[in-house]
Amino acid sequence: MHLKEKRIFITGATRGIGKAIALKLAEAGGHIAFTYCASDLKAVQVTEAALRAFGVKVQSIHVDASDFKATHKAIEDTIETFGGLDVLINNAGITRDNLLLRMSEADWDAVLNINLKSVFNTVKASIKTFLKQRSGSIINIASIVGISGHAGQTNYAASKAGMIGFTKSIALELGSRNIRANVIAPGFITTAMTDQMEPSIQQAWIQNIPLKRPGLPEDVANCALFLASDASNYITGKVIQVDGGLLT
Ligand code: NAP
Fold it and tell me: Is any atom of ligand 1 closer than 6 Å to the C-beta of 143?
């Protein structure tokens, strides 16, 4: 599953799942443009150096993925620098968990804007290039919570369910032009996002996983490599769970 010369744009790749995906795809030969938002310069430089070690082209862009105009410019710059775009990966995401009774409008808006509106932003900005090329693979990182729902995460679950509906719709709109769109729905993956949880809650999640371990960012990256590569050429409009069997 090589990606030699494929041009890839990924949101949020200085840590966690996004970083693991960027490294895996660079290792396979893909050129990587990645975004960061709150990350410090050191984290950006470390990521750039790790990616360049694979001998691929690397571009880092500071952008808030919920900002329509800024995201559009980031994608345009990438297309200009790389001479096109083959793979778009929407990974940036946040949680602002609370029971609905206590959830603020600000927490609702932040999660919907960063997790879901960002996907509209990047896909809108990429679509003309994909159409001209008559190829493209869009990979959206949702969550099993977008399928099952989860108490205390109405905003997050709604954003991830929205990503699934969006992805299935663009798969239908763009399939005739050989543009594919798929979702990866991770379960419980060890990153800063899950580290924020109480240890007892983490243990409760892990107990329920048939494979009896939390997922690693690399587990998600392996699936992204497949969807980015030509090995998945006949797969579109699908939700692939990377969850150790957690949601059956
Ligand atoms: P993480 O370690 O908290 O990383 C989140 C990433 O999102 C960071 O790279 C961050 O970049 C970026 N980001 C946040 N706000 C942004 C904004 N406004 N604009 C652009 N980028 C922004 O989380 P993770 O666990 O790796 O999660 C990655 C994705 O997987 C998310 O979409 C998450 O919902 C999904 N997911 C995770 C799990 C899990 O168990 N970990 C399970 C299911 C789904 P900066 O640091 O530069 O701001």
Answer: yes
